Structure of 3-methyladenine DNA glycosylase:
Amino acid sequence: MTRSNATLAFPHAVLAEEDWRARERAHAERVCHWTEPHRQRKARGAKHPVWDFLFTYYSYRPSRLERWQPGPGVVLAGTGAGRFLDRAGYRAVSEGVTLDMARFHRTRSDSTRFILSLLEATAERPARLNCFGLHEWAMVYRERGDAIRHSEVPLRLGADGTDDVVDALDVRCSHYDAYRFFSEAAKPLNSTTPTRSDQRAHEQPGCLHANMDLFKWAYKLDPFVPSELLADTFELAARVRELDMRASPYDLSDYGFSPVRIETSQGRAEYARAQAGFSRRAASLRARLIDHCRALLDHGGEPDAAGAVHTGPAAVEG
């Protein structure tokens, strides 16, 4: 990917308390659409085969997702901003409270370089749209009983019919974190053998899981990422997850989801069209994350544009 010509430095902005509180409320209202039902299900011990993934596979707690943060370059003014000093990564300055970019360079620069390199490598490749979501089928291939993931949900075609679909189609999964959940019988059927160490060589922008993982790479930057960008990646992950499971071998009619029947040519065409749409949406978010990572790494950790200074030790990372 060609490096953007845009200025990468974070603009200095001071937010009045009424303004940042309004953004805080708007963010909480936006993500509570997802977090509150999850919290209610968990309280009554109920599972959801589609939405639980967003809070179990991904390690970002619902309470953290609900918690608004301004991102770099922003000073929160007003007496209420003092509560941000109870969080890791913030410091007091003459105008209010802001992120401590020196802490970023001490604790997050190496991981941010990895994230940036992976995102750039993914963005440089063309989107491949011929996997048809078979990764979910490969995870249950020749498995029976409790060994089946989501065993509480029936398979649309039954176990033998599911196996027949995998046998009839080419398995082309490029994403290690999907491939590693394949059944042992399915792994040799995949066109490649992705590993963690060669992840950057395989990730491609048509992959549903690579696009869901934009959420993971965003929250790995916490608190040095604005909540609006974080919420955008989460919302994309939720929409992609829906397609992922509608195209899976599971019968999700009891949960209100109609299937994308990838065992048929029409279903595969439907899947590829939806996959292409998500790839385009993800490309914009991936570009924003790339620019954000570059700006973080380009920030030298010097005093900000307002000449802000430390007024006490930074909070210890929790």
